[in-house]
What does this fold into?
Amino acid sequence: MKRILIIAFLLIAETVFAGDYPIYYERFEPNVYSLIILNDSENAIYLHRITRKNGTIGFFYDTKATWGYYPKIGGRLTRPSIWIKTGKFRFDYFEEKSNLIEIDKMGPQGKYVRVQNESK
It folds into this structure.
């Protein structure tokens, strides 16, 4: 009976959070535009466009990206706390208020601001 209650609790908890998706994060700078869409608790879309100094444009888009949280240590989030894995790259982030900060071995790399989808 205890197992059934635990399973039921986990299923109910998952459906409560399911209404929060999709979640949109956007990074906009003069030469860079990136969009992250967290579709559900596992799947994401990642889009990145950059205009280089020589005028060429780089574009990367993955509709089959996955994402997740790093395990907590001592009940606390780690830094980085979130990862996104595309077909070619893996990106790490930590949460700061409602924003995501991209981080790598050199430190923070960019700020992604949470935005609302106006088409809802």
